[in-house]
Amino acid sequence: MEVTIKDVARRCNVAVSTVSRAINNHPDINPQTKAEIMQAIEELNYVPNNSARNLKRSDNKTIAVLVKGISNQFFNKLVTEIEKEIRTKKYTFFLQHVDEHANEVDIAVALTKEKRLRGIVFLGGYEYHTKESLSQLTVPFVTCTTSDFGNNEECVCSSYAVDDYKESYKMTEYLIRQGHKRIVLLGPMEHDESIGRRRLEGYQAALKDNHIDLDEKLIRYMAKNVVTYSMRNGYVVMQEALKEKLDFTAVFAISDLLAIGACKAIFEAGKKIPEDYAVAGFDGIDETFYYEPSITTIRQPIKELATSSMQALFRMIKSKESVPGIIFAGELIERASTNPNL
Amino acid sequence: MEVTIKDVARRCNVAVSTVSRAINNHPDINPQTKAEIMQAIEELNYVPNNSARNLKRSDNKTIAVLVKGISNQFFNKLVTEIEKEIRTKKYTFFLQHVDEHANEVDIAVALTKEKRLRGIVFLGGYEYHTKESLSQLTVPFVTCTTSDFGNNEECVCSSYAVDDYKESYKMTEYLIRQGHKRIVLLGPMEHDESIGRRRLEGYQAALKDNHIDLDEKLIRYMAKNVVTYSMRNGYVVMQEALKEKLDFTAVFAISDLLAIGACKAIFEAGKKIPEDYAVAGFDGIDETFYYEPSITTIRQPIKELATSSMQALFRMIKSKESVPGIIFAGELIERASTNPNL
Predict the structure, then answer these.
(1) Over chain B, what is the mean pLDDT?
(2) Distance from A211 to chain B by nearest Cα, in Å?
(3) What gap in Å lies between CA B36 and CA B19, rounded to an integer?
(4) Name one Pfam family in it (chains A, B) (predicted).
(5) Could you tell me which chain A residue has the CA closest to the CA of B191?
(6) pLDDT (0 to 100) of residue A71
(7) Residue A325 lies in a domain
(8) Is position A319 within any domain?
């Protein structure tokens, strides 16, 4: 039976927290007590640190997490959750950021050979991949926050994401119900083949179903010379729109960071949110609550995305068979940036 | 001589961007052109992806980056910079988050054995480590953003950080010059032995040198049941202070995220920033600019911290000798959260 910190505490007749202080070299402990605890640890052959213990057992069973594009708060939180799941299952966690213009599948193929991976997690990603390219992926993988290439017969894979079209439709329709007809869509990339495109299509469909003519001028693509999906990108694009004296009453930014940048540009122009312009985002990062005013957003279920995609990956590693993916519902959180009564 | 993407473009008489599109399976390319490019790539024996190529060369030369406590925007940016430096030097980058109550040195010792590390980067960290414990670290290491244990004779090591005492003194004195006498210090931990303690001491010294009596009630420790250094922690601690009707005119939060949380609590209480309460932070994350009002802060030189600490680590890996660390100057950025004229 494994020796736990409780056994050490019992042996020394001290609290578990005291043992923890001794182990972590905390200064706030009686030296005599500490010596006794260290003695007991040795006698009981207790391995003090959970993380240290897990490391020893990992046997080079590595799972790689490939994050496409620059890291942002949303992905960081997701990575932290995924890291936890991977360590709990005694796998080694390997993180690699992939440049937004690089091909993540090529990198995954190289990594698989180099690190003898057991599985791969793709976060983000907006490249089109051919069947030939995907068929080179010889280990199970999941795509998380995107369904772009997580559903295909060539591979052992699965896909976990919200329905970007539907969630975007939901937010656009909400803004229309709030009385807006001229809604800026901020943030798809030109020639976007992934998330941005689906969010654009959801926006277009909601306008159409509500008999509002689409004005192409209201679609504001991300700036190309600025980090994608960043606060700065939302800021410069909105500055440009305001300078042009674009006629609009609401902004739907396809990421929260873009929304925050847009808010700052609006404030700098001496305008009020939501009185002059309503602003909504997408993702549900904590910053949207702490911003003033708090920003309306679509919350993606980060914890569920992480847990279910990793469970699927572990299952696929065992069974070598694809499992069905899951489309999650996002949650529209209405806040003061679109509703002056909140 | 190495074949580059330019050679491929020249051979096919197309633009480099076209070759890139072919490599990355971009749909927006003529299939015939793509076939020609792929043919040329094979003939020239061009290895298309930089990252993929680097991976193959890494030979398991691993550097581990241990991040203490929960990830936040400041550390994330630093990790991204450090990751870049590590990959440029063809080392393998290994990231591990360390629970804030765990002992990072024990984990590093275990990792060194498990992964046959060449070097270690410690980010953050606020535990006291004995000489005995440190002497177990048999590979060179740097501490970054903290000088806690990066200067000792037992190890090959070096330390890169700002002078927390001095920078905190600077900010406190700035607030005093702005006319504030009752300044809340938000965020040290009780029994803090690291960054928080030095920032507290800088605050105390600035008050003393300006003949302002220290009021212990103005020191607001982080909440223990909430993630440290988080927006939420600043938010709940400031809510509590406002509920108590604490008498103060300014808040100096020892991290930007704490400052943002404090701002939200102040707004929710119906108060204005900076008219009712001035607020300042520490770290210089981008969010402080985009917040409304923009938040005064001390900018830590992230890029320089990353570059110089990694250069030192690479040197120490070669020479097996410690190199002198560097104390960097922070930059006080004055913004509207403490100056209504900005």
Answers:
(1) 88
(2) 32
(3) 10
(4) Peripla_BP_3
(5) A28
(6) 63
(7) yes
(8) yes
Q: What angle do CA A160, A164, A165 make, to 5 degrees?
A: 135
Q: Which residues pair with A92 in a beta bridge?
A: A62
Is residue B316, in this structure, part of any structural domain at all? yes
Q: Where does the pLDDT of residue A293 fall: very low under 50, low under 70, confident under 90, or very high at 90 and above? A: very high
**Is B301 at the interface with chain A, CB within 8 A?**
no
A185 and A156 fall within a common domain = no
Tokens of B243: 């509920």
Together in a domain, B178 and B228 = yes
Examine the domain organization and report whether A226 and A249 are in the same domain.
yes
CA distance A233 to A217: 18
Residue type, A289: F
* A28-73 pLDDT, tens digit each: 777 778 888 877 877 777 765 544 444 444 446 899 999 887 667 7
Average pLDDT of the segment spanning A231-260: 97
Query: What chain B residue is nearest to A130 in terms of C-alpha separation?
Result: B25
Cβ of B25 within 8 Å of Cβ of A128? The answer is yes
Q: Does B57 touch chain A (CB under 8 A)?
A: no
B292·A264 Cβ contact <8 A: yes
Considering only the beta carbons, identify the residue of B70, B83, B113 that sits closest to A97.
Answer: B83
In a domain, B335, yes or no: no
How many angstroms separate the CA atoms of B3 and B53, rounded? 12
Which one is predicted more confidently, B185 or B148? B185
Whether residues B281 and B169 share a domain: the answer is yes
Q: Can you spell out the DSSP letters for A239-281?
A: HHHHHTT---SEEEESSHHHHHHHHHHHHHTT--TTTT-EEE-
pLDDT at A303: 94
Pull the structure tokens for residue A148: 């772009």
Cα pseudo-dihedral A127, A133, A134, A136, rounded to 10: -140
DSSP E strand stretches across A31-133: 62-68, 92-98, 119-123
Please count the other Cβ atoms lying within 10 Å of the Cβ belonging to residue A321.
Answer: 9
Are residue A176 and residue A152 in the same domain, yes or no? no
Among the partner residues B28, B56, B133, nearest to A110 by beta-carbon distance: B56
Whether residue B293 is found in the same domain as residue B247: yes
Interatomic CA distance for residues B112 and A106, integer angstroms: 30
A13: CATH: 1.10.260.40
Q: Which domain holds residue B31?
A: 5-48
Q: Which of residues 200-259 of A touch B (CB under 8 A)?
A: 231-232, 235
Domain tally for chain B?
3
Give me the mean pLDDT over the B2-20 stretch.
Answer: 80
Distance from CA of B211 to the nearest CA of A (A): 32
Are residues B51 and A102, on separate chains, in Cβ contact within 8 Å?
yes
Which CATH number does the domain housing residue B85 bear? Answer: 3.40.50.2300
Q: Minimal CA–CA distance to B237: which of B264, B276, B272?
A: B264
Q: B193–A27: do the CB atoms touch at under 8 Å?
A: yes
Task: Say what angle helices B231-243 and B256-268 make with each other, to 10 degrees.
Answer: 40
Q: What band does A335 get if pLDDT is binned at 50, 70 and 90? A: very high
Same domain membership, residue A272 and residue A188: yes
Cα separation of A87 and B194, whole Å? 28
Q: Do the chains contact at A114 and B58, CB–CB below 8 Å?
A: yes
Write out the two tokens for B251. Answer: 């808040």
Token pair in block for residue A99:
């440049």
DSSP class of residue B294 equals: P
CA dihedral of residues B132, B138, B144, B148 (deg, nearest 10): 10
